[in-house]
Amino acid sequence: MAKKKVLILYAHPSPRRSEVNQPLFNACRNIEGVTAVDLYHDYPTYNINIDREQQRLREHDVVIFQFPLYWYSTPSILKEWQDLVLEYGFAYGSEGTELHGKKFLCALTAGGKEDAYQSEGYNHYTVRELLHPLEQMASLTGMEYLAPFTLFGARTAKEEGRKDVHVKAWKQLLTALVEDRIDYKKAQQVEKLEQSLSDIVTGEQS
């Protein structure tokens, strides 16, 4: 079975204070077939190397944005990355086909509980609805958008014993992506990947 190459673009402005995202990032760095990039570490002045980032995209089959949800969106460096790297003629436009057919998803944490991210909840929208700009980015660039991998109530996940469970599921998802054992149609249709891994991951780990 052909292996897929997974690119994780990690954006956390305060990694030393991270109780979930940093352990997730550390875990993915040990998985063969996964390239893990810490954007704030690599570009502390936001001077993004466009050529290098575009080449990374060319070389990978799956692209993942990993981040804590800040003010219903991504941390600022991911927006800067999009603005500079996803150029006309590279990522979109009549000749901008470099990303066509690649898979894209977000792996994020939210401080609020899951019931806050509902139409009748405190935040009025689901996480998938809040991510519509990124879903449209994937559509415009020809990538296949998969449902997000989300941890709610991240502030208390460690003390409640949910962090380790989430890290384990994250490693399971990444391994399945590398081994191409994903039902992509289902992964596009569900609301959240973390609650549907048993249905989405196919076959047995090699």
Task: For the structure shown, list the relevant keywords.
14% strand, 206 residues, Rossmann fold, 6 strands, six-stranded parallel beta sheet, alpha/beta
Q: Topology, pairings included?
A:
Elements: E1 6-10, H1 21-28, E2 34-38, H2 39-42, H3 50-59, E3 62-68, H4 76-85, E4 103-109, H5 127-130, H6 132-140, E5 144-145, E6 149-151, H7 163-178, H8 184-189, H9 197-200
Parallel strand pairs: 1-2, 1-3, 3-4, 4-5, 4-6
Helix pairs in contact: 1-7
What is the overall number of helices? Answer: 9
Distance between the termini: 9 Å
Oligomer: single chain
Largest sheet: 6 strands, parallel
At the first level of CATH, the class is Alpha Beta
Rg from Cα = 16 Å
Number of domains: 1
Structural features, described:
Strands 1, 2, 3, 4, 5 and 6 form a six-stranded parallel sheet that branches. The N and C termini lie close together (9 Å). The protein has a single domain (6-200), classed as Rossmann fold, CATH 3.40.50. The mean pLDDT is 91. Helix 1 packs parallel to helix 7. With 206 residues, the protein is of the alpha/beta class. The chain contains nine helices and six strands. Helix 1 links the parallel strand 1 (6-10) and strand 2. Helix content is 34%, strand content 14%.
